[in-house]
Amino acid sequence: MDILHVSAECYPVAKAGGLGDVVGALPKYMNQLGHTAKVVMPMYRTKFLYANEWAVVHKSTTNMGNWWFEFTIIKEKTDKLGFELYLVDVNGLLDREKVYGYSDDNERFTAFQICVLDWLSSWAKKPDIIHVHDHHTGLIPFMVKHCLRYRGLSHVKTVLTIHNAQYQGWMGWNRSILIPQWDMWKWGMLDWNNTINPLASAIKCADRVTTVSPSYLDELRWMSNGLEPLFEYEKGKCVGILNGIDDHVWDPNKDEYLQHHYSIGELEAGKAKNKMLLCDQFNLDFDKPLIGFIGRLVGEKGADLLPQVISDSFYFIGRRMNFLVLGSGFPEVEAGLSALKPLSQYDYNVFIGYNEGLSHTMYAGLDFLLMPSRVEPCGLNQMYSMRYGTVPMVRRTGGLKDTVVDFGDVNGYGICYNHTSIPDVTHAVWRAAELYHNKEKLHHIRQHMMKLDFSWETSVKHYIDVYSALVV
Ligand SMILES: Nc1ncnc2c1ncn2[C@@H]1O[C@H](COP(=O)(O)OP(=O)(O)O[C@H]2O[C@H](CO)[C@@H](O)[C@H](O)[C@H]2O)[C@@H](O)[C@H]1O
């Protein structure tokens, strides 16, 4: 089968979060099964762009409303990522340093989608499936079905994967002019609550919708930032498929970011060396358990609770553990975490920013990884941490519920709690501090986690089943 993934992110080209990890891995594993999966994404000004060689494969002119512009599609020459990678270059619009966060993001991603479909229209053999990811590419299912310009693509099946339904790409109806001429009777397929809602539109128009875990799909029916009735209505075409992790990239024995590699046989020594690096770099106490947080400092991830949880833990449990936080996000949360720094007695530190290398060292060197998420569609961090023998401390929600079993339950290995609340999370910290001193149990849990299979091989087969049901 021929599949074209259309995405705003793809690791290692450009990554702002988990979407990048998934799109950087899924096509590679599809190709290993004998399919042809390709990726097209915007051409940002990234390190990867300048460090690799590119061939121009298509050049054309198009329009978005009254604005005419040129675009170029370039292809990475060697297919080194395990799939063909194409970038869309629109001068001045897409070629920025960051993936998101600009006031014209709606125009940027609409233009990107128009270029992709214009380009696809010129292909002699169309793909069997266009697989779009999240709202940035959510207008494509509508455009393929209802834009006159793309009539030649109307037989191509579309699949939407929802990595995060909190963000929906809302645009006022005054922007409808941006979408190439479309059948006005179909305005309802773009609309949700009087705005153009690209995510809602994709849920309505895609032939199949997947979410990144089964539990997240259940939750979306009662908690999806306004789309609850739509998920209930469209449930027949939705399926939850748990993400995998790319075990070529995330392998403690080969990880290119790690100074000290280790396999399951030498996990205690390997983890200790990585922990020592972190303790040296961040002035932490090696003898105490090291609890970390890695991720976007936003409400969804429960990051706003961190300052209070950390100070309450020191107050009520005692200075029996270290905390290390890596992330960026809401300025108030960043400020709250930075404000705790002077209170550290060699047991707390924070790195505000994005740092891929540090995140890998943390997965390896931490004893525990805290994830008090309010919403977690799948969560990759808990799977990375388990692969590196680090115990996840997760709230039972979405993909966290599907992947972590409390160590108090039969065959369990993680620390689970029910609420994103200061008492629940602080209690989990206490349980971590206690578990740390039961060395035999901790070692057993670490070994058990490192043997768990979260590879893409299983998940990819579910995606292929979804495609196969569409392409007869
Ligand atoms: N400051 C920082 N420095 C270095 N690395 C950092 C970092 N902040 C985050 N990361 C990295 O970004 C990735 C985050 O992955 P998640 O799955 O937690 O997040 P995200 O919410 O972005 O993804 C959404 O999509 C994914 C993929 O489907 C779902 O798993 C998830 O639940 C959903 O919210 C991890 O690789 C993590 O290490």
TrEMBL record:
Pfam families: Glyco_transf_5, Glycos_transf_1
GO biological process: glycogen biosynthetic process
UniProt enzyme class: transferase
GO molecular function, one term: alpha-1,4-glucan glucosyltransferase (ADP-glucose donor) activity
Pathway: Glycan biosynthesis; glycogen biosynthesis
EC number: 2.4.1.21
Gene3D superfamilies: Glycogen Phosphorylase B
Keyword field contains Endoplasmic reticulum: no
Domain Starch synthase catalytic intervals: 3-229
Alphabetical UniProt keywords: Glycogen biosynthesis, Glycosyltransferase, Transferase
Lineage top rank: taxon: Bacteria
Residues engaged in binding ADP-alpha-D-glucose: K15
Protein family (similarity comment): Belongs to the glycosyltransferase 1 family. Bacterial/plant glycogen synthase subfamily.
Primary role: Synthesizes alpha-1,4-glucan chains using ADP-glucose.
Protein name per its UniProtKB record: Glycogen synthase
